[in-house]
Input
Amino acid sequence: MAGEWRELPFSDAVMVNPRVELKRGVEYPFVDMQALNPGARCVYPSEHRIFDGGGSRFAPGDTLMARITPCLENGKTGRFCAPPDSMAHGSTEFIVIRGREGVTDTAYAYYLTRWEGVSGYAISQMTGTSGRQRVPTESLDHLLVPIAPLHEQRAIARILGTLDDKIELNRRMNETLEAIARVIFKSWFVDATLEEFPKGWNESELGEIAEVIDCLHSKKPERRPTGKPLLQLCNIRDDGLIDMTDTYYITEDDYRYWISRMEGSPGDCVITNVGRVAATAQIPEGLRVALGRNMTGMRCRSSFPYPTFLIEGLRSSAMKEEIVLKTDTGTILDALNVRNIPRLRFVKPTNEAAARFEAICRPLRAKMEQNAAESHTLAALRDTLLPKLISGEMRVHEATAFTKTAT
Output
């Protein structure tokens, strides 16, 4: 590579599991594996725990890389975000990475770790039994990685970080928008009691306001590099949105077969039946999709055309309690039987009240969908630029033009 670029062993380029002094018996922020979100850069403390001398130790800005399957394979790597001097500890399954003074910038070290040249190599070095393999820390020692001059590292981290900052801003905005919609729904429709129902309101069942359509139970079609989308459980986010970052494509023929009962369309809702029981999401504008296995579709009936009421109702605390009552407990997995979904009870308001709620909260969910779509585009741009910048194939001045319009 031209100029001052060079190759160094990974353990010479960055600090791996750097020393952090914690006192036994003292409570510090703690991070578990669930705190790593593949779609987010920042990792926040899960809780506070007393340090007993074990696990990983790290400081603000350090990169936490999962060392186990399937977490590493799912891209679970993030930077610990906390106030300065907030030393912390966490899972034994983290490899902690920090920039090395005079060699690598700590923010750049995060993106170096996200680079396929490092993450892919780490996956190839996993050892252990199937389904629970680990990356030996020492296996990274002699991996050669490209290292740019420090000023260029900082510029690379700034370009990629700008994209991640916007993604994080959208995430926080969506948290706020979702919280507003849920508070409004709760105050209008959940806190009412049977004795206080307004005139025309009544206790009803989900099947009265929505068609409930079971998925096909056929063999899952073969995945293709391009084609039509088949919705998977991993596409259903915890905030009720659909994330098609990892899209399972199928052929046109398979798609036609899998939409024979229902084609997921904007405003339709889906609910999972097993595994993550009762995870719910709403199909956003611009997406049509076939429903995969282990999920049920719901579509508002023409007599009650209020899809925002439907999704917020499904995600409400009252409905979650109702779902628990209707969930079958199994020896291996619990299951929400599709026959029970139309029987889920809720407070049904008048159409006039539901229409008022729709008018207030539909724009909130529309903005959430727009933010999620924008974040998807930004993440795709980041993932395109990252390997080119880290390897030196593209230089900073070239990448800057790509990001100006995006941010």
